Amino acid sequence: MSLLQFVNKAGGVLEKGDVVVIAPRQPDPARPGMPTIEVDLAQSVNDTSVCGIVHDLYAEHKPEHGHESDADGTEDKVGGRGARKRSKAGAGPNQSFMLHELQTIDRTKIAPDQIGHLVASGFCLMCKVDADISPIKPGDLLTTSATKGHAQKAAESTRAAGAVLGKALGSLKKGKGAIPVLVTLQ
Q1: Domain spanning 2-57+113-184 has what CATH number?
Q2: What is the mean pLDDT of residues 93-110?
Q3: For the chain, which terminus, N or C, has the lower number of CB atoms within 10 Å?
Q4: Is the Cβ–Cβ distance between 167 and 160 less than 8 Å?
């Protein structure tokens, strides 16, 4: 299974099941730390920059009472040395939450500039699809769709080369919905 971190650069909230592509502009590769890709919603057919399906919001636990040290070695005490300003749960780039906040935040939505997880391969999860283009049945290959954030049946596998997102494990005869998909980027 390949679970990757991404930064939402779509300009709006991303939701679990959205199909995403690599954003045209990526962060400076010389930036220190773990590389994190920036993503946008898929919105064109057979897009070879498809990189996965949104899974959840990345969130870290921060100590409740400030008795533990943060990763930077400073204590997290209200008003004390090295204290961090509390942020509204789920808002902004600060993604450290107290345990009670972790239990109440909606991890299926990732706001602009927040970090989330996407599934890039070897995992089955629900994916938004558009069957108005063509009905989808189990075993069909899926590619990006012109419908923002959705996948569609890959009508011609040769045209979808490099843009296949995965294999449908469910079916949808008509309309927009979510079906289980085995993610296998090709």
Answers
A1: 2.40.300
A2: 79
A3: N
A4: no
CB atoms near residue 97 (< 10 Å): 19
Q: To which residue do tokens 């070695």 refer?
A: 73
Please, which pLDDT band fits residue 123 given cuts at 50, 70 and 90?
confident
Sign of the Cα pseudo-torsion (142, 41, 184, 156, in order)? positive
**Strand residues in 9-156 grouped as ranges (E):** 14-15, 19-22, 37-41, 50-57, 60-61, 96-97, 109-110, 115-130, 141-144, 151-153
- Where in the chain are the domains? 2-57+113-184
How far is residue 23's CA from residue 78's CA, in Å, rounded to a whole number? 38
pTM attached to this predicted model: 0.72
Per residue in 24-76, pLDDT (tens digit) is 877 666 556 656 788 999 999 999 999 999 998 887 767 765 544 444 444 33
- What SS3 class is residue 183? strand
Q: What is the 8-class DSSP label of residue 185?
A: -
